[in-house]
Amino acid sequence: AVSECSIRPLGRDEAVAMLFKKMSQIPLQNCKLCNNNQSTLRAAAKASSGVLSQKQAFEARLRDLGARRQDAPRSLGAMSRHLTSKLLGQRPELGQSLLRFFAQAAGGRGGTLRLGTLCSGTDSPAIALKHLAATLGTVLPDAPKEGLKIEHVFSCEFDEAKQGFLLKNFSDVGYLFSDCTQMGRKRAWDVKSKSVQEIPGDIDFLVAGFSCKDLSFMNSYRKTLEEMGQSGRTLRGCFDYVERYRPRCVLLENVYAIDRADQHGLKQVNIVMEGLRLRGYVAGYTLMNSCDYYLPQIRHRIWMWGFRMDAAPDASVSAEETREKAFEIGQGLNPRMQELLKLLEEPCALHFDDLLLDEDDPRIHEYNRQLYGKKARRRQEAGEAGKVRSTLNSKLTWQQKYTMHREKLDYAQERPYTSERGARWKGMLNERTMELLDLKCLDVLNEQGMDPREVPMLWDLLQSVERVPGSRVRRDRQNYATCVLPPSLLWHTVRHRFILGQEKLALQGIFEEDLGDLKSFPQALLSDLAGNAFTSSVCLAMMLAAASLSEEASTAYRVSPSVGLPMAPMLVDAGGVAPREEDEEGDAKRRRL
User: Fold this and answer.
1) For residue 82, is pLDDT > 90?
2) Three-class SS string for 166-231?
3) φ, ψ dihedrals at 409, nearest 5°
């Protein structure tokens, strides 16, 4: 029998339905484009959640700092007491180390701690050490009844105007030498006595800030230390003094660019480390930020230390053996130094407004009056000349740069900051700074969603439009001032005025109460001094940590040459970086450095 054929033509709707049913049963794979899109979406979702959590962390940090703002220390003496109580509260055994450091001061003669400073700007180490000695004399139970004594033996400053500032405000300094490069000699010119004097030794603390001009990223024509520019010459002067007079502790400070590797992988800070080791010092360094030590200023600096292993070098020991011994001891001591500095950190709860003068202070009115007069004189001179000074050169003029910035971001002719009619504060500004304020106001409004006319910010108007310090600050550091530089024009966006040099000193922890006379000096000089100064609270922390641990360098050296301090769980080199396993060629390169 023949079966009946069951094949029949399907209608359109029925065929489409069957086609979709069959296709849905086939396991399909996404194409590369779809996979990439899905990966991008997942990464974007993850990034957005990360940004959200980071913003929440920043806001939580701001709330915490705001809660502590009222009780935060506002003087160097209060900072010293808080810092010391934190150290002795968590590491009480270091109290005896501090007492021994003072007892062995000046070679055991008299027990007075002797300080020498080189190129320190405003001699803030002397102020910091004075407060540290006064605090330790009261909190240490076994301290002498007459207290702990210090002596500012000498300072060194090349600039004549700054020499006048030091003589006026540090009258107790023994000598004021004029040239750091001559400090390795037996005698040098003393500005205080206006005669040639013998350079003193027996120093417990030598604090120096060799020139950063050749190392700074602000310099387009940087030099290495070996090229012996200004930075290399001043460092050589410091090394010459260290080699001849051998102070117990050497503290050096410079810009963080010294820790950046060049195209050959060499860091300039390694030259400093090797120079100290070859002279018999356990050397190390770390990066420190002023806003982590009580003061509302973002200032990253590399601080270096050298602890003397032996007062008199052994002639029978070669320089290479001395360097190897210093390196070995540093592997155990440097991590402990960095750990102690981390322990002493105290994020600043103050706002930079807390350290500024009141708006009705006569010094502010006098400074503004000088700026008004200066601008009026320049306008008059330009009118009499009848023409603008020629600016034909290979670089773009500020007008060209600012016009390109407007066109790039489509700002048209918006001027939100300087559009206020009849504002007296505009009399302190010139055409360039007014245009710069408008551009940075637009940048902050669009990028950060904040109005700088209502949210206080400090902008350095001396810089160009593409890099104005203070206009891009992390949210949780919005209360901190940008780094105070020697040439700077810090503008307060809410108070509509420039920051005085005296206020910049306060941002560095150098307060009027710790100085003898500020009124005799122009604000321009005080501003330059502040830009070159050490942050006093950071210097205070460095001195406290160094006094606590420096004794261990000499103790380890007196042990068998093959035995040093106990190694830390993770070895680090003098710069705080975990060492790599080196082959023979790499080890030979390190020895030649």
Assistant:
1) yes
2) HHHHCCCCCEEECCHHHCCCCEEEECCCCEEEECCCCCCEEEECCCCCCCCCCCCCCCCHHHCCHH
3) -100, 5
Sheet holding 113-118, edge to edge: 195-198, 187-190, 175-177, 150-156, 113-118, 205-208, 249-255, 300-308, 281-289
How many Cα atoms sit within 13 Å of 122 on the Cβ side? 34
Asked whether the beta carbons of 504 and 484 are under 8 A apart, the reply is yes
Here the tokens at position 140 are 């240490």
The amino acid occupying position 67 is A
Q: Is residue 430 within 8 Å of 376, Cβ to Cβ?
A: no
365: which 2 tokens? 């009115």
Between 407 and 381, the more confident residue is 407
DSSP class of residue 481 equals B
Residue type, 208: A
Burial 120-142 (b: 16+ CB within 10 A, else e): bbbbbbbbbbbbbbbbbbeebee
Closest CA to 285 of 100, 545, 527, 580: 545
CA 37 to chain CA centroid, Å, is: 43
Model confidence at 179: pLDDT above 70 = yes
The secondary structure element, H or E, covering residue 156 is strand 150-156
Partner residues linked to 115 by β-bridges: 152, 205
Q: How far apart are CA 371 and CA 430, in angstroms?
A: 11
Residues in the chain: 593
How far is 532 from 412, CA to CA, in rounded Å?
39
Dihedral of CA atoms 288, 294, 298, 303 in degrees, nearest 10, equals -20
For residues 405 and 465, the answer to whether their CB atoms sit within 8 Å is yes
12: which 2 tokens?
Answer: 């359109």
pLDDT in tens, 34-74: 666 566 656 665 655 566 688 888 888 888 888 999 999 99
Name the pTM for this structure. 0.83
Q: Please say if the pLDDT value at position 203 is more than 90.
A: yes
In the block, tokens 């950063």 appear at: 212
Which residues is 251 bridged to in the sheet? 207, 305
On the question of pLDDT at 577 being above 60, the answer is no
Helix (H, G, I), strand (E, B) or coil at 251: strand
| Helix and strand element counts for the chain (H, E) | 17, 12
Q: What is the pLDDT of residue 592?
A: 32
Tell me if 146 sits within 8 A of 133, measured CB to CB: no
Residue 236: which of 184, 189, 278 has the closest Cα?
A: 184
Cα separation values, 484 from 78, 361, 406, Å: 23, 22, 28
Please tell me which residue, 390 or 298, carries the higher pLDDT value: 298
Q: Give the SS3 label for residue 306.
A: strand
Strands 175-177 and 150-156: parallel
Q: Other C-beta atoms within 10 Å of 516: how many?
A: 13
Helix (H) or strand (E) holding 118: strand 113-118
H-helix or E-strand containing 163? helix 160-169
Residue type at 234 in one-letter notation: T
Q: Is 14 helix (H, G, I), strand (E, B) or coil?
A: helix
Nearest to 59 by CA among 507, 479, 351: 479
